[in-house]
Amino acid sequence: MRNLLRNNGAKERAKSRTRKLSIKEGSAYSISDGFGIKYITPYALAMNASNSQIGLLSSIPTLLGNISQIYTTKLMEKYPRNQILFIGAMLQAFMWLPVLGVGIFFFFFNSSNSFSIDLLILFYTMLVAFGSFISPAWNSLMKDIVTRNSGKYFGTRNRVCGLVALVSMLLASFLLDHGIYFSLIISNNAEKLL
Q: Which fold has domain 25-193?
């Protein structure tokens, strides 16, 4: 009986730690969302994307992202959810490199406008698809972790993540408007705080 109680206590501590980590993970994703995903259309416009290319950039990633979720449920029957989450999140994170690389080639090496936008659509679609791909596994895992007071927990998590996303978007907008000058002021003040 004691072993059962000890195991239940250990499981509950692990779930509590995972819930706290989930808020941190959501905050990290909110930074990615605020600094990157929300600004993908202005990024494409800076590369002289046409209206039809902006339409494709807005629609194709969402469509393929939703379709990718169908395959996640099949993979969850064969592989552990945490493995699907890890691989999908790593692939999504690594997709930022080619998205940024397209802009570097466009702005610094004068690559073709049409080719650059096509690559941006491709890489951004993959980024969104990998993010959407892991959603069913994440939802299933969180259902097992948040067993009581799920409304309160997800309300808190969404508030924290929403605030982080808002601050990230504001910082990104200041960086875009004021460039390197603004980032130097922020880093100088951050050093004083430390």
A: Growth Hormone; Chain: A; (1.20.1250)
pLDDT in tens, 155-169: 999 999 999 999 999
DSSP, collapsed to helix, strand or coil, labels residue 112 as: coil
Q: Decide: residue 36, CB within 10 A, 0-12 exposed, 13-18 middle, 19+ buried.
A: middle
> What are the Cα distances from residue 97, in Å, to 94, 102, 149, 171, 178?
6, 9, 39, 21, 24
Closest CA to 116 of 129, 95, 99, 96: 99
Residue 184 has pLDDT above 60, yes or no: no
Give Cα separations from 107 to 48, 102, 113 (angstroms): 11, 9, 10
CA distance 33 to 165: 7
User: Which residue pairs, CB below 8 angstroms and at least 24 apart, start in 105-112?
Assistant: 106/47, 107/47
Domain boundaries, the chain: 25-193
- Per the CB < 8 A criterion, the answer to whether 53 and 117 are in contact is yes
